């Protein structure tokens, strides 16, 4: 019985260490949702009901282009091209962003150390990943 208890304790410790980063990521995402003023418009029990597995949300207050870029990159671990970002911003926030407005914001986010370019796509820097 004691051996079984030790094995169970070891398994629980392993699971808890795996959960730590997930719990941290969940808290970052919740913080970004609050910061962006997003609220769910679809059923809470059916996340990802929309195409692409992204829960439907609506903007309750205007977000900046930088906020919207951070939000759409948070859902794209492999990054997005500027064109993909603008399409996702339009789909998610209902806002059309011109390239001439979008590009300077990408450069500002890069200068702030929040995003980086990886080939043709932009990605969140590691400390911002999992938003």
Give a quick summary of the entry:
The protein has 131 residues and is mainly alpha-helical.
Descriptive tags:
mainly alpha, two-stranded antiparallel ribbon, 131 residues
Task: Summarize the SSE layout with pairings.
Elements: H1 2-36, E1 38-40, E2 57-59, H2 65-74, H3 82-93, H4 99-111, E3 115-118, E4 121-124
Antiparallel strand pairs: 1-2, 3-4
Textual characterization of the structure:
This protein is mainly α. 53% of the residues lie in helices and 11% in strands. It has helices at residues 2-36, 65-74, 82-93, 99-111, and strands at residues 38-40, 57-59, 115-118, 121-124. Helix 1 (2-36) packs antiparallel against helix 2. Residues 45-62 have low confidence and may be disordered.
Question: Which whole number gives the mean pLDDT?
Answer: 78
Radius of gyration: 18 Å
What is the string of SSEs from the N terminus onward? Answer: HEEHHHEE
For the secondary structure, the number of strands is 4
How much of the polypeptide forms β-strand, as a percent range? 5-15%
Number of helices: 4
| Low-confidence region ranges | 45-62
Q: Structural class, judged by helices and strands?
A: mainly alpha
Strand order of the largest sheet: 1-2
Outline type: elongated
State the separation between the terminal residues, measured CA to CA.
43 Å
Strand count, sense and closure of the main sheet?
A: 2 strands, antiparallel
What helical percentage do the residues reach? 40-55%
């Amino acid at each position: 019985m004691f051996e079984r208890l030790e094995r169970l304790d070891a398994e629980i410790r392993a699971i808890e260490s795996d959960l730590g980063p997930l719990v941290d990521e969940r808290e970052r995402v919740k913080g970004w949702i609050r910061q962006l003023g997003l609220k769910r418009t679809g059923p809470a029990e059916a996340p990802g009901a929309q195409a692409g597995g992204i829960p439907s949300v609506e903007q309750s207050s205007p977000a900046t282009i930088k906020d919207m870029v951070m939000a759409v990159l948070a859902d794209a671990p492999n990054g997005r091209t500027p064109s993909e970002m603008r399409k996702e911003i339009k789909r998610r926030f209902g806002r059309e962003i011109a390239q001439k407005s979008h590009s300077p914001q990408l450069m500002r986010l890069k200068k702030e150390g929040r995003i980086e370019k990886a080939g043709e796509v932009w990605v969140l820097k590691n400390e911002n990943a999992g938003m």
